Amino acid sequence: MASTTTTTIPNLSRAGSDQSPHSSKETGLASAEWEGEESENEYSDENPEWEGAIPKDLLPIRAAGSGAFGKVVYCIPRGSLKDYADITKQPSHLPMSLKGQVCVVKVHGTRTNAHMAWREASILRFLQESDGYPRYNISSLIGCDMQTDGLSSMTIEATHGPTLSEFVGTSLTRSGRNWLSREFVWHVFLQLGKAMRFIHSMKVSHNDAFLDNVMLDPQRQTFPGLPNVVLIDFGFAHHIDTERNNPYNTTEISTTPESMDVQMGRDNVDFLDVVSTLCDFVCNDESEEWLSFVNLLQEYELRLEDDEVSDDEKSGLLDYFFSRYEGVAIAERVQMHEMDKKKMMDHLYATSRGLSDKEIRNAIVAELEKA
User: Fold this and answer.
1) CATH topology (fold) of 164-349
2) pTM to 2 decimals?
3) What DSSP element (H or E) covers 72?
4) pLDDT-derived band at 11, boundaries 50, 70, 90
5) In a 3-state reduction of DSSP, which class is residue 246?
6) In this predicted structure, what is the pLDDT of residue 148?
7) 69, 127 Cβ separation under 8 angstroms
8) Three-state SS across 93-161?
9) What InterPro entries does this protein map onto (predicted)?
10) Every domain of the chain and the residues it spans
11) pLDDT over threshold 50, residue 9
12) CATH class of 4-158+354-370
């Protein structure tokens, strides 16, 4: 019988390699964790071990993605289905009371990956239990099931929007590059920066912070009219104390305080690269402070290409940019026109590959018909 340890995060009201190659095709679940594309790797009943790794109290809906390290499946709690026995009579747009319960289950694809699953779940739990945790800007762990003789899984709150990569890389944007509002880029700068600064304050490095691992959540808006920016996929994250306490480790821990500083410095560079990529699409660049910001980003880009930025300087980059531009970003974001917000949200919904209301409804109807 499988040896199992189950870890749950209580009181949540909302329902390998250790180095990232920085490519969604190579990192396995780096971007696929949240993608809605159907492929030959889609969740099916063909592998009973995969099916058995999904917690029994969850109803699988469809695959969210797959990669080298495993699969991710959209699910909904079975216990909630009885409240929607008349779902066929529901309007075309399902209520948030139902859609808000959708989650994703991340199943690690080999029996030897328990140490990676434990590390990721433990780091997310550590962050969630810490003071100042920005719950709407970091993917939220609901529970996990660690197995030494089977496939381990993690249940994570779903984000119902596109990744930044999907948002800026679709056919809707290819007709011209200058379509994005600078106020929206300031929004990403503030919210993604908040998430990164928080995890670094907790001595956690992400090690995979690029466009495919940043999502936009239109259903939750802490700044009215714009989607929350969510940092996802902590599969390559590191935290020294967590790794020292990992019961599934079979190798010596190589992470040191010095290497953590280097990793967090690389996170800072990755953060600036994300923001710099968005800057390429900005149309209204008449702000003097904005031009100063873009010029500074370009200056660092050139220096980084020439290997002229030391590890010590990289470790302070995020705080340096925030000290110079946080106030500007806050002030200019407030000035964003309502029409520009609407355009951003319309484009966001058009590029989302998350679950549709129809898919949720069909899965629930099929399950209720079995009863």
Assistant:
1) Transferase(Phosphotransferase); domain 1 (1.10.510)
2) 0.84
3) strand 70-77
4) very low
5) coil
6) 74
7) no
8) CCCHHHHCCCEEEEEECCHHHHHHHHHHHHHHHHHHCCCCCCCCCECCEEEEEEECCCCCEEEEECCCC
9) Kinase-like_dom_sf, Prot_kinase_dom
10) 4-158+354-370, 164-349
11) no
12) alpha beta
